[in-house]
């Protein structure tokens, strides 16, 4: 770095006086040398080197450099629960549409199947089914509050996030045990 700066300054001096330019310029043209050379590889060697480098590369470095926070957990869970609820809706609609082909899937058979299950399985099933429903519903209300411009501070975002989690837990337990 120092040699490059020194040679650049000397070139400026040499360029300033025409008498000095012709004698000094060839002396300073060899100051900077690069000892690195590119390695010539065949296409097969190049592809093998590239694949080896890709194996050592992390999959998602953007996830490993950030500290996990409540905000992106709730955002991801909102998307996951929305996808799961819509998937269940579509599958149940398809089951009722296929009722003429598979007559065992109707309301009477489903009710008798659920009635014959043990109480602990029905209670845990109601809790598991109600948890994503209540979370997605309460988080949707949270987003509607944000759409109105309320609770947009960091403290407001965290307080509404904790409120969504508390309301989800209370509602899911109430639905599982009291409905």
Explained architecture:
This protein has 179 residues and is mainly α. α7 packs antiparallel against α8. Its main location: membrane. Keywords: Heme, Iron, Membrane, Metal-binding, Transmembrane, Transmembrane helix.
Keywords:
8 helices; 0% strand; mainly alpha; single chain; transmembrane helix; 179 residues; Succ_DH_cytb556; iron
Largest sheet features: none
- Please count the beta strands (DSSP E, at least 2 residues each): 0
What is the arithmetic mean of pLDDT?
A: 86
Rg from Cα:
34 Å
Percentage of residues in helical conformation: over 70%
- What oligomeric state do the depicted chains represent? single chain
Give the distance, in angstroms, between the N- and C-terminal Cα atoms: 77 Å
Structural class: mainly alpha
Strand content: under 5%
């Amino acid at each position: 770095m120092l040699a490059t700066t020194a040679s650049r300054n000397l070139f400026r001096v040499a360029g300033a006086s025409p008498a000095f330019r012709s004698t000094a310029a060839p002396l300073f043209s060899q100051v900077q040398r690069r000892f690195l050379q590119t390695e010539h590889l065949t296409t097969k060697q190049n592809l093998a080197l590239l694949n080896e480098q890709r194996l050592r590369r992390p999959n998602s470095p953007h996830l490993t450099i950030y500290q996990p926070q409540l905000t992106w957990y709730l955002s991801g869970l909102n998307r996951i629960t929305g996808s799961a609820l819509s998937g269940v809706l579509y599958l149940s609609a398809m089951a009722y549409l296929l009722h003429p082909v598979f007559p065992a899937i109707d309301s009477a058979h489903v009710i008798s199947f659920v009635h014959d299950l043990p109480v602990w399985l029905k209670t845990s099933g109601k809790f598991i089914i109600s948890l994503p429903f209540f979370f997605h519903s309460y988080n949707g209300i949270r987003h509607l509050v944000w759409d109105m411009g309320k609770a947009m501070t960091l403290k407001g975002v965290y307080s509404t996030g904790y409120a969504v989690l508390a309301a989800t837990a209370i509602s899911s337990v109430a639905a599982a045990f009291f409905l």
